[in-house]
Amino acid sequence: MVYHKNPPVLSTFFDLVAGTFVALGIVLKERIRIIHVRGITPGMMVMALSKLLRIKILFDMRGLLAEEYVGGGLWTESSIRFRMVKNAEKKMLKKADAVTVLTQKHLELNKRLDYLKDRGIPMDVVPCCVDVRKFDYHGEPVTGLKKELGLDGKFVVMYPGKIGTFYLIDEMLDFFKVMSDRVPNAVFLVVTNDEPGELVKRAGVIGIREGNVRAVNGVPFEEMPDYLRIADAGLFFINPYKKLGSSPIKMGEFLASGVPVVINPGVGDTEEMVRGENVGVVVERFSGEDYARAIDGLFRLKEEGEDLRKRCRTTAIRYLSLELAVGKYDKIYKLLAGAER
Fold this sequence. Notes:
The protein is of the alpha/beta class. The chain has two domains: 10-128 and 322-340, Rossmann fold (3-Layer(aba) Sandwich); 143-319, Glycogen Phosphorylase B (Rossmann fold, 3-Layer(aba) Sandwich), CATH 3.40.50.2000. It has helices at residues 10-30, 40-50, 65-71, 80-95, 104-111, 114-117, 143-148, 169-182, 197-205, 224-229, 249-256, 270-277, 288-302, 306-319, 322-340, and strands at residues 34-38, 56-60, 98-101, 123-125, 155-160, 186-192, 213-217, 233-236, 261-263, 280-282. The strands form two sheets. The protein has a six-stranded parallel sheet, sandwiched between helices. Strands 1-2-3-4 form a four-stranded parallel sheet, with helices on both faces. Strand 1, helix 2 and strand 2 (56-60) form a beta-alpha-beta unit. The protein starts with 9 loop residues before the first helix and ends with a helix.
């Protein structure tokens, strides 16, 4: 199927109708009895099918979609889209035979919902997880990559991902400005598929020395483990507006690679994990004083060397490994299959 974006709302309605008929054909042909739904839009398709067919539904929520779009400046809470998605979310929760969310905070929120807390259905937390076999600070040295990128002898602060929307790139640059004033050999490396022109321009405007902010485009996923391994710290600030259901994959990838993180509070379970496991620093407020305090804390951590790297990786294995997610899904599938029989 082709996903349509225009005209707004109508294109989504068309995709929902088309997707429902495609899904109906697959369910009938393959005699499917359990459907794993990732997100609201496919959930709306499955709700229509559930009235026609006897199927079990695992609703994999993937966060609070409507609120996150508001936080990203894409919707308002008074918009039709927001209300439609919240209504669909409620219907899915009332219909689902099992529910998974990305964070413990989101799970606790769901358990307090009157229409869900007494249903007694399986619910669990399955965060965005990382393949710890691919992302690992052990293995072949990456000195060649550092040399290729001109980063020999540099303290590399890395941000991988999109520029803008939910990600607070201006605040990240402000943080790095404070660091670069204190750490002359620091470099902010942004690995992105977006156009980095405005990023570099903004860096110059706030007084970051030329060449201290660098952007790399088009890195294939299979090369990302090597890039993360050259980082001395991972940096990502995310708009915390109602982000209690958010689980950034960057967290697991950095930690599995033995790299401590610099984050802001209010995003899913990240703050509790960083503080509880001592695998990075939390910037309380976006201010020069708090940036300086976090930088001091980061360098105290870096003095631990191998102990810090091991602790980061152990944390990723314990909370964010792919094997953990597979095991949780397997348990839920077996419960639903048993109920079906």
